[in-house]
Amino acid sequence: MAKIQSKKNGTKKEVIIEKASRLFREKGFGAASMRDLAEKVGVEAASLYNHIQSKSEILQTICFEVANKFMSNLETVEASPQSTVKKMEDIIRLHIRMMLDQYEFVYISDHEWRHLPEPYLSNFLNQRRSYRKRLGNIIEDGIEKGEMKNINSYTAVLIILSAISGIDSWQRSRKSTSAEDLESNMVKYLIEGLKK
Fold first, then answer.
1. Domain edges within the chain
2. How far apart are CA 83 and CA 104, in angstroms?
3. The domain 12-48: what is its CATH number?
4. pLDDT per position as a tens digit, 91-120
5. Domain at 55-194: CATH code
6. Is 124 exposed, middle or buried (0-12, 13-18, 19+ CB in 10 A)?
7. Of 43, 71, 86, 133, which has fewest CB within 10 angstroms of its CB?
């Protein structure tokens, strides 16, 4: 029987979650089975249960790992003395880097969260709403300070997050633009749209 090959300084559970993130993106959470995952990992399906309890546990891990990274960065940015424009730039850069470096995890968090069981679903949605509201608060603060254009903060947050999620198209075809150029151009366009 094959064994799960863990990466250096990584656990077998981390290997399973990484392979699951690719599988969930390719097939969708609902269509992906534990048998499919076992095949990706290269073990018998029963062996997976030595490391994880369920497919739902994997989804929870992925969704909350992404959400917690975004929230932790937001808390750091909120507490910093920099301008509101610089705060938004730091937040936008993290979102772009996460889409570039942890694409599968961010994709799953953005598209498959609906499959979270309760109480995780409510918790995730509350965290998501809170995050977006706090981003909006930074923009409103920037408007009040005269650092940003007088725009609707809710709409601005939706446009920024939607634009960044469009990196999904780049991930599938990486032909015309490097990751560095993509990040640089996106930050420039999004920040210029906010700056007064």
1. 12-48, 55-194
2. 32
3. 1.10.10.60
4. 999 999 999 999 999 999 999 999 999 999
5. 1.10.357.10
6. buried
7. 133
